[in-house]
Design a protein that fits this description.
The protein is mainly alpha-helical and 203 residues long. The protein is built from seven helices and no strands.
């Protein structure tokens, strides 16, 4: 099962490179950079970080698999819209923001735990993990992301702050609402499940 997942994951890296090459041929250089360089780097980052001794000695590969699963989810929600899902006649973007809210909130919490546990050498209170994850996503995933989309369009001519079927400001409001709901749900999952997750990740 794990080998199958790795094969699918590597296939997605190849697909991203192919999309990037297409964008490069079409002279869409910003998107070419995203697909050829930025996205593959993000996709191979977890497995390279896992090679660090203090990480692979303390955590098993279930944690690595979880990071790569979340990256695939974020890749699907991020690439799905520009690759055609934005033309679907319902607001799939808002549901993607909810899914991103859940995924990134959990990732923020895990990364915070790993780093602070390494620095302090002590266990971290669940409430502290939840608070960090919740605030981090509100700042980066809700407030700053919408502004990033808007200014990215202005600078690079993309269509991130845009919707085919509804007013863009209304769409932005829905994105923030659904992202916040995902953030809350992700925070609840951390609070009630983090100890069990940690036991499964320990080497």
């Amino acid at each position: 099962m794990r080998k199958t997942f790795k094969l699918i994951y590597n296939l997605f890296i190849l697909i991203m490179l192919i999309i990037g090459i297409i964008k490069l041929v079409q002279k869409e250089y910003y998107l070419a950079f995203i697909w050829i360089i930025f996205t593959p780097i993000i996709m191979i980052l977890p497995r390279n970080l896992y090679k660090i001794n203090w990480i692979n000695h303390k955590y098993n590969k279930k944690l690595l698999d979880l990071f790569e699963i979340f990256i695939l989810i974020l890749l699907f929600t991020g690439a799905g819209l520009p690759l055609g899902l934005k033309y679907l006649p319902f607001d799939i973007d808002s549901y993607f923001h909810f899914l991103n809210g859940v995924s990134l909130t959990i990732l923020f919490g895990i990364v915070y735990y790993i780093i602070k546990n390494r620095i302090t050498g002590r266990e971290i209170n669940k409430r502290e993990i939840v608070l960090f994850a919740f605030i981090s996503y509100i700042i980066f995933g809700v407030i700053l992301w919408e502004k990033f989309q808007y200014y990215n369009d202005q600078i690079f001519g993309t269509k991130m702050f845009f919707d085919y079927f509804q007013d863009v400001n209304y769409d932005s409001m829905l994105d923030q609402i659904f992202g916040s709901l995902g953030n809350i749900f992700g925070s609840i999952l951390i609070y009630f499940n983090f100890d069990n997750w940690l036991n499964k990740w320990r080497a």
